[in-house]
């Protein structure tokens, strides 16, 4: 039966909220084509998320909450989705391009010989085809591609590029249960949850630090190997992080800061780091090299704080403050605490 | 046992990339470099091949400009380079089929290593699809190879996931994609650069690899980024506190907070 299928990603029992954006865009396309929308929810607690999928707009929900899928592994997930695609031959399968979504949909696309386009930031329905806008050359230009064919096509959307649909709690749940396939090629020996999980691609607010983080006036303890590194690390932890905390945001960094060892790589924003598009991006002590711009230029509002009034970052910023980040950031954190009542 | 890795030439990371009047993507006179993510996969291929006493081959799929990346790879220390022509870069299924056919043609390959993604096409989908076309296990976002045992035919890796780290073991053959930070990529040596200068790079074609076009995706064209129309408002004040107060006021007014 002709339909649009939206994959709802569940990891360790928690739904990836950007999946609802895929469901919302799936609904828009399904309406244009006049076909129903099916949500596909696999993994731990999947059954309890089915209701939410219906509220967000799914006409049907296919659920697999088999314990065999509790720990995410590519093989069984891909085998199940490939089977469902072969069985139902949907017109479109859509998912959010998280690290899981990317490998999963690409694998299913290979198994079913379905054309796939990733990193969509805009989609237009053109008859039976989809015209998709997506970045190329590390986000320095955009490309437009036509996606279409006789069989199923697949689409990965960039997180936060499409609006999340609104909930309608009066919508009924129409659920179908499927069981997990028995395929296994890897053995998961251990899973370590990171307590300080950084999820920059989903963050609505990001506070990023650059080379300027080394200008911390704090005095390093004697015997520290590299005082500049110590100062910057201390600044990320005790000056930038509190600002991110009061805003409910995440901490990012420039490549210069990561390469200098000020903070770990999973915080890096830019051409060889994460591409982000938050509502608010605060760049502290970041000059704004072209590689950094490629990763954050889609932020809705950019605030730049830098000592150097000529730093290129100011040209991109909506608001700029020329000043010492170690004076301005703590002041900003204090003001926000008062104004946001925290 | 042999190792294969893939690379391509991409504009220098600092280059300004634009679409010109004819709709072509240009980067002025800027040089091309090895796709930035591939520095790590090339280094890992060299190290792992040395450990197991195998040969490391690098492949680029695309026109002649990709010889630059292949020569850089040889200069770093890869044993052999091959270029494949006649593949539509936007058709990832065709790309993956060509990659898989080439790996099979080389023979006795048990490990294929990719960098995390290709910056020019802006995707990583061809990586997972190559694994699938080969029928091999895929291990993505590998941050460390903990163990590669050619005799036992096993590999153990640490891989990153959005919520943490998994330690995974699998039977060879596998395809892995590696992250920045897995190693410190070396610079080409003087001897390596001389070797690369003399290297003849064989060209294979998609047709002779028996790869068909799938054509469900067509490039319509490239566009420059929409101009970011920002009017920068500089916030002044006698003290940092005053600047902070004014900024927060603006952010609240604009409903950013």
Terminus-to-terminus distance of chain B: 57 Å
Largest sheet of chain B: 9 strands, mixed
CATH superfamily of the largest domain in chain A: HUPs
Subunit arrangement of the protein:
heterodimer
CATH superfamily of chain B: HUPs
C-alpha geometry of chain A: elongated
Q: Would you identify the regions of chain A where 5 or more consecutive residues have pLDDT less than 50?
A: none
Helix residue percentage of chain A: 25-40%
Low-confidence stretches of chain B: none
The share of residues in helices of chain B is 25-40%
Which percent range describes the beta-strand content of chain A?
Answer: 25-35%
What does this structure look like?
The complex is a heterodimer of chains A (342) and B (257). Chain A has 342 residues and is of the alpha/beta class. Chain A has two domains: 4-177, HUPs (Rossmann fold, 3-Layer(aba) Sandwich), CATH 3.40.50; 200-339, Rossmann fold (3-Layer(aba) Sandwich). In chain A, 31% of the residues lie in helices and 26% in strands. Chain A has nine helices and 18 strands. Chain A has a seven-stranded parallel sheet, with helices on both faces. A five-stranded parallel sheet of chain A has the order 15-14-16-17-18. A three-stranded antiparallel sheet of chain A has the order 8-9-10, with helices on one face. In chain A, helix 5 runs parallel beside helix 9. Chain B is an alpha/beta fold and 257 residues long. Chain B has one domain (2-205): 3-Layer(aba) Sandwich (Rossmann fold). Chain B contains six helices and 15 strands. Chain B has helices at 38-52, 67-76, 92-106, 125-134, 190-198, 240-253, and strands at residues 2-6, 9-11, 18-19, 25-26, 32-34, 56-61, 80-85, 109-115, 137-149, 154-161, 164-171, 174-178, 203-205, 217-224, 233-234. In chain B, the strands form three sheets. Chain B has a nine-stranded mixed sheet, sandwiched between helices. In chain B, strands 2-5 form a two-stranded antiparallel ribbon. In chain B, a hairpin with a 5-residue loop joins strand 3 (18-19) and strand 4. In chain B, helix 2 packs across helix 5 (190-198) and helix 3 (92-106) crosses helix 4. The longest helix of chain B is centred in the N-terminal third of the chain and has 15 residues, at 38-52. Chain B is globular, with a radius of gyration of 22 Å. The mean pLDDT of chain B is 95. Chains A and B meet through helix 4, strand 7, strand 9, strand 10 and strand 13 of A and strand 3, helix 3, helix 4, strand 9 and strand 10 of B.
